[in-house]
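Technical annex, item 7. During the second reporting period the consortium partners agreed on a shared format for inverse folding records so that results from different sites could be compared directly. Each record opens with the tokenized structure and is followed by the designed sequence. A conforming record, contributed by the partner at site C, is shown below for reference.
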């Protein structure tokens, strides 16, 4: 198993992407700790993992609260003996409007939320990873430096900020054998609600690929598990593109 005896933390673990990663990590032998603010969604993911024979625990944690995050991560380390993988998947406050029309306060608040949660959660994991001399911090979403699409509002900017933080974290944590990576998918149709309003968007995501198939939740989970494993030991400070050719490096 790729992640046998590893401990993985996932913030936003009750979401679609978080659930996919959690199931894949558990299937590869990891003990998974899911954090979020909605116990019901966390419990749903945890039940599927347990039904498949995996190890999982859940906790209600606000990823914007430094004391709560640090206290929880310390408890995970004390219980499991290590913190090997940390993934932050909490949702951004997306504002899809032209920048010239963007309310300044709303934009600033959304950027502060992203910066705060990624700094808090990475700091909490990094303290333990530095001590143990190993670990993986994994981001999801990535950025597109060649973006030419108007109307993305703060969404692309938020991803770019996370990527800038990823590069800095990789430089600072690399000497401690801690790797920092991100995944970019170009969109996962399965993660969209299965309603008529999303049908066209899903088809557009598929049509934009070279393989004429978009990344699936299974793809996301399998690649995430590989990146978190020792098989990817030489990978850090980079984006891993699983967009089926929709995004060009």
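Designed sequence (site C submission):
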């Amino acid at each position: 198993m790729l992640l046998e005896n590893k401990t993985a933390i996932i913030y936003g673990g009750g979401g679609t992407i978080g659930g996919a990663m959690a199931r894949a990590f558990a299937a590869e032998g990891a003990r998974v700790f899911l954090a979020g603010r909605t116990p019901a969604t966390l419990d749903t993911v945890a039940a599927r993992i347990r039904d498949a024979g995996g190890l999982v625990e859940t906790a209600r944690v606000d990823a914007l609260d430094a004391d709560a995050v640090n206290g929880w991560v310390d408890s995970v380390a004390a219980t499991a003996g290590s913190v090997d993988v940390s993934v932050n998947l909490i949702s951004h406050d997306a504002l899809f409007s032209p920048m010239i029309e963007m309310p300044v306060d709303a934009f600033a608040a959304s950027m502060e939320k992203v910066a705060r949660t990624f700094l808090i959660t990475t700091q909490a994991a990094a303290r333990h990873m530095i001590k143990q001399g190993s670990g993986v911090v994994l981001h999801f979403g990535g950025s597109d430096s060649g973006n030419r699409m108007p109307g993305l509002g703060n969404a692309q900017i938020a991803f770019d900020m996370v990527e800038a933080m990823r590069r800095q974290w990789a430089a600072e944590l690399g000497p401690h054998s801690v790797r920092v990576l991100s995944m970019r998918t170009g969109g996962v149709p399965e993660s969209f609600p299965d309603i008529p309003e999303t049908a066209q968007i899903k088809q557009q995501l598929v049509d934009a690929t070279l393989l004429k198939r978009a990344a699936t939740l299974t793809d996301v989970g399998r690649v995430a598990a590989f990146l978190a494993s020792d098989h990817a030991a030489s990978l850090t400070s980079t984006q891993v593109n699983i967009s089926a050719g929709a995004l060009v490096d």
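The helical segments are 16-27, 39-51, 66-80, 104-132, 154-173, 196-207, 217-228. The longest strand covers residues 178-184. All partners now use this format for quarterly exchanges.
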